[in-house]
Amino acid sequence: MASLLVTGSIGIDCVQTPHGQVEDALGGSAVYFALAASAQGPVRLVGVAGEDFPERFTAMLSDRPIDLAGLERRKGSKTFRWRGQYAGAMNEATTLATDLNVLAEKGPTIPAGFRDSRYVFLANTHPTLQRELLSQLAGPELVVCDTMNLWIRTEREELLLTLGMVDGVVLNDAEARMLTGIDNLVGAGQKILTYGPEFVVIKKGEHGVMLVGREGIFVLPAMPMYDVVDPTGAGDSFAGGMMGYLAGQNRVDTMALRTAMAWGTVTASFTIQDFSVGRLLNLGRAAIMARLAEYRDMLRFEE
Length: 303
Prior knowledge:
Helix content is 35%, strand content 25%. It is of the alpha/beta class.
């Protein structure tokens, strides 16, 4: 397996859904990604938490094949916090409070032992910071980034600079439309390709995912699930499953990308079955492969 590194937020979440609520739960984009990807192999985690980051959270991460040499617990700082609420079909969270805390400070430093990482995911954070982190790496083979509506709205030029330096980008349908001003997702994806990436993965929530690349378009449905408890982190878990597969195969051709999207889709279907990272803590490759077989069978048909 090729080395896989993720950088992004490490957080403490408070989430309420129609199924209940959790207070002070482990969260953050890099955390969801790392836990999801670790079901397939080792992951290198780079991020900053405050001195209030509980030791039990560190233990939860270290119980998985996640290298925490890049996790900085910054003295005198507080961990990023997010409070959100889901209602109805739970398609989108309503943010009730966001405390950037340590995320508003200097970014993390990638350890020397991580700088040879071959596969890199720049999880959602400020696009300037994404480029700074990328500059610390020694020629990775594949770099994929995530973004969000905040940066599209407030840091568009910085985001475009970042997109010009990565191989792929993962974002949701609303973000793709906002970034390009194009309502049609095929057109939006093709427009994003002109910004530099070789491929664009557009997440559509319960409606699946679309890959737009130089060689064409590929679409997959979501894995139908009845027991949706908490959608938080589903997108980052998708990215973790996708990148974990690519690093495991150590190839990034069109068919590998398509298969990786299926792995990401199925991995994310586990995340939503419990609050926070609960379902990811003991998720193994065998469980993913069993559900992947169900997913593949669902997509099979004859004329």
